[in-house]
Design brief:
By secondary structure, the protein is an alpha/beta fold. It has eight helices and five strands; from the N terminus they run αβαββαβαβαααα. The mean pLDDT is 91.
Length: 196
C-alpha cells in the first residue's frame, strides 16, 4: 500500500497535479500498527511532496460490516474483542462527500480532518441494529480464532493491538468535520441501514 500510494503521489507531481486529497485512517502515527501506520507514512510522503494536500481521517466505515470476507458480520454474528468501547463509524459516502467538497470548494490545503459519524456506538448496540448475535470475545479467544484461519502471528498480534485500542475508546470521539465540510450532518447508522 505504501509503495502504491507514494508512487501515485510522485506520478501526480510529475504530470502537474497540484491538489491532492488523501483518504487516510483515524489517528495515523509512527507507533501505530498495520494500515494505520502505513497511512502515516504515506501522509508524510505527501506532505513532503510540495503538492497542496489535505487528509481525511475516518474512524471506520459502516460498510465494513457487510463487505466481503473482511466484513465484520460475514459469519452471521458480530464477534470480536470489542469490550464496551464505542466507535463513531462513518458512512463511506460521507467521506466521499467531504473529498468532493475539498476538491471543488474554496477551502485551502494542508489540513487533516478527523471524520466520524454522528454517534458513537458499542458493537453490542450495532449488533442489535443488525438483528444478529453479539459475541464479545476475550483477546485470547480472538487470537486463537484468527490463528486458526491461518493468519501469521505478527499480524494477529497487531490486529489485537487495534482491537484493544478500539475497546479502550480510542474511536469514540464524535467530530463536526462532515458538517463543516459539506454543510450537512453525517448519516446515522440507522440511516445507513435504511438507505444501503
Amino acid at each position: 500500500m505504501v509503495r502504491q500510494q507514494t508512487g501515485v503521489i510522485d506520478a501526480a507531481r510529475t504530470v502537474g497535479v497540484t491538489w491532492v486529497v488523501k483518504v487516510s485512517a483515524w489517528q495515523p502515527g509512527p507507533d501505530a500498527k498495520l494500515s494505520v501506520r502505513a497511512h502515516w507514512e504515506i501522509e508524510q510522503h505527501l506532505q513532503a511532496s510540495g503538492l497542496r494536500c489535505s487528509s481525511l481521517r475516518p474512524t471506520g466505515y459502516m460498510q465494513n460490516f457487510f463487505t466481503g470476507e473482511g466484513g465484520f458480520t460475514h459469519s452471521g454474528s458480530l464477534a470480536g474483542p470489542y469490550g464496551v468501547g464505542r466507535v463513531a463509524y462513518i458512512d463511506a459516502y460521507d467521506v466521499a462527500a467531504c473529498a468532493a467538497a475539498l476538491l471543488t470548494g474554496p477551502l485551502g490545503g494542508g489540513d487533516a480532518y478527523a471524520l466520524t459519524g454522528p454517534e458513537a456506538l458499542t458493537h453490542e448496540e450495532i449488533a442489535a441494529k443488525l438483528a444478529i448475535p453479539f459475541h464479545d470475545l476475550t483477546p485470547k479467544k480472538a487470537s486463537e480464532d484468527l490463528r486458526a484461519q491461518g493468519l501469521p502471528g505478527w499480524f494477529v498480534d497487531d490486529l489485537l493491538w487495534l482491537y484493544a485500542d478500539m475497546a479502550a475508546g480510542s474511536m469514540s470521539e464524535v467530530t463536526t468535520a462532515v458538517r463543516d465540510l459539506t454543510g450537512r450532518p453525517p448519516r446515522t447508522f440507522d440511516e445507513f441501514l435504511a438507505n444501503g
